[in-house]
Design a protein that fits this description.
Length: 461
Amino acid sequence: MSRPRKVHVKSFGCQMNVYDSNRMADTLAPAGFTETAEASDADLVILNTCHIREKAGDKVYSEIGRIRMLKDAAEAQGRRMLIAVAGCMAQAEGEEIIRRAGAVDLVVGSQNYHRLPDLIARVQAGEQIVDTEFPVEDKFDVLSPPTREAIHRRGISAFVTVQEGCDKFCTFCVVPYTRGAEVSRPVEKVAAEVKRLAAAGVREVTLIGQNVNAYYGQGANGRPSTLGQLLHRLARVPGIARLRYTTSHPRDMNDDLIAAHGDLPALMPYVHLPVQSGSDRMLAAMNRRHTRKDYLDVIARLRAGRPDLAFTSDFIVGFPSETEDDFRSTLTLVDEVGYAGAYTFSYSPRPGTPAAAMESQVPSEVSLERLHRLQAIIARQQRDFNASFVGRTVDVLLEKPGRLPGQLVGKTPYLQTVQVMAPPSLIGSVLPVAITDIGTNTLFGALTEYAGMPALATAGA
Ligand code: SF4
């Protein structure tokens, strides 16, 4: 009997890539591939790449070097291993990847991975392929759905892509070039995917898109639907306890979506709303299409409808021509909003973007010094935010067993990890937990409805 074929998919970058990696594995399952966590054991290794973060390309090429050694070792044992590079870097660099790394058999763009079974068959027949054309067909119509086993293995929280691409053209960003123009999936197709996930035990769904709140998918009435309307539809799917969405643009935070935060208990009060800078001069240079005031107004409107909302954000420091005064405007904005956390980056040019060609690039030592100052403030805000939960009772979605016997790990509405003593039968439940202590990245507590359960000690956790 022939050995079952195995695929190892490694994700770099954002949640959209994690979702895409799962869908790649799903779409290869009917072709006889099962997933393996070990690259050395795989017949096909897919590196699902990102092109946004600093040094993303270097990381991928060094990973290809490592996989190439595994490929050579497999071949020495008479076994063929294929290497595919997928995702945003594949889309942006195409042929260049094969030129720099001849061990790569296939380069497949972020819009084409539904073609993987066919592409793999051609590679096995001896071709070396680069497929980065934007296709005419909708990949979501062609992709195989996940099996119940795959849904079960991935846990009770799932990502669902509802929107792809971006029309904003921020001057530092490659997404409009690598992911193309904004497209949105129809409401009922998203609802069908969410129903399938819920039937297999998923309790929390995060809707994802590069610019998710620009969503305009076709509604049941044939007309475009807003993200707020989509969330209303999904909140009615039996079994779904929690809904989230990411990543949003301040300009697309419309009345419907703001109202949904007040109206839908299932919509978690935790919003990732990138601002990038607190300086209007920098926001204009970044082509963000919003001002500092616009951003603060959106935050105020969201908080007015749902006072317990907490925010996270993205910041870039050291964008070309950023002065100390510009940077201080970012710090005052951070003070004004008060964040539960943030992703902070020192600007690094992405080839092909307008900002990469701008004059007045900020010296890296200046950028790094600013980054450290910003990170210290965000870290303090995050600590204060977490500390404010001690002594409070919060609803926790119990997700999986913890490291200690009898322990479960779950998430608060604000995505904080919580450890409690609780039986495994409660996985999937949302239950009130009294928070007793905080660690570096974790809250500790006790189920209030199971008074016999002791709170966890923090030591050694
Ligand atoms: S809105 Fe986001 S995805 Fe779109 S160009 Fe700007 S940073 Fe990139």
